[in-house]
Specification:
alpha/beta, Rossmann fold, 7-stranded mixed beta sheet, 7 strands, about 40% helix, Methyltransf_11, S-adenosylmethionine-dependent methyltransferase activity
């Protein structure tokens, strides 16, 4: 198994996370660097949040993008009108490219869903030329996503199953300070740097946050989908109460932090 992310529908993912991934792609590209004419690989492209921002950020020679989910691949391919971009289904732990194929290999919000993340990092380094850049970013679920943490804590307050979900969610691989950096170093990358990227998630109202979760999207939605109707209603009510925080439903804004790491291929 090469991905633990749960996807039902590309449009549902866009509402849950894709819209924020597109915003995160901009500071991530600034962190990873980019230059005209380069060949770049996007590992775990999803619906193309990073892929299509890359195409606008520089006059790149070629952009390859892969994802494990056929749902995501089909959605990204349907969006693509750029002949430089080639999107295919593939495994992050067995990239279908020769050694030293790319100038930069990037992964946006992917490695925490790869059970064998060190193997994926090794593959990213393998397909990148010497002197090229490997970079990745993941959310800090435990301390850097207050909106989603609010939902998870609401579910945890309802019972043991919710507490187990919280333990899994908060401590996914690569999310603790220094963890991804250490993994890059362990895979032989040099001049490894770690940073934090900040953006805000702005919701129009509670339903703007809850609908994709209630429909079963993502790791929290996967848990909610296992609940019976009564428990699902309790979960939604608890999450709504936390979101509203004693005020009428309406817009809310949450600051979110992602860890970012880059290294150079020796």
């Amino acid at each position: 198994m090469t991905s633990s992310f749960n996807v039902q529908d590309a449009a549902g993912y866009e509402q849950l996370m894709g819209r924020w991934s597109q915003k995160l792609a901009i500071p991530f590209i600034d962190f990873a660097g980019l230059a005209d004419g380069e060949k770049v690989l996007d590992v775990g492209c999803g619906t193309g949040s990073l892929t299509f921002v890359l195409a606008k950020a520089a006059n790149l020679g070629e952009i390859a993008a892969i994802d494990f989910s056929p749902v995501f691949v089909a959605a990204a391919q349907a969006r693509n009108t750029d002949p430089r971009i080639k999107i295919s289904q593939a495994d992050a732990c067995a990239l279908p490219f020769p050694d030293k194929s790319f100038d930069r290999t990037l992964a946006l919000l992917v490695l925490h869903f790869v059970p064998e993340a060190p193997k994926a990092i090794a593959e990213m380094a393998r397909v990148t030329r010497p002197g090229g850049v490997v970079a990745a970013t993941v959310w800090d679920h435990c301390g850097g996503m207050p909106g989603m943490r609010m939902v998870v804590d609401s579910l945890a307050a309802l019972g043991e199953a919710g507490r187990q979900l919280r333990a899994r969610y908060c401590f996914q691989p690569m999310m603790q300070p220094g963890e991804m950096k250490a993994a890059f170093v362990a895979q032989g990358l040099s001049r490894v740097e770690e940073s934090q990227l900040l953006l805000r998630m702005d919701y129009a109202d509670f339903n703007d946050l809850w609908v994709p979760i209630g429909s079963g999207e993502g790791p929290i939605g996967k848990f909610v989908a296992t609940l019976d109707q009564a428990d699902k209603a309790r979960a939604e009510a608890a999450a709504r109460d936390a979101y509203e925080a004693g005020r009428p439903d309406g817009p809310r804004s949450f600051a979110n932090i992602a860890w970012a790491v880059r290294g150079i291929v020796a």
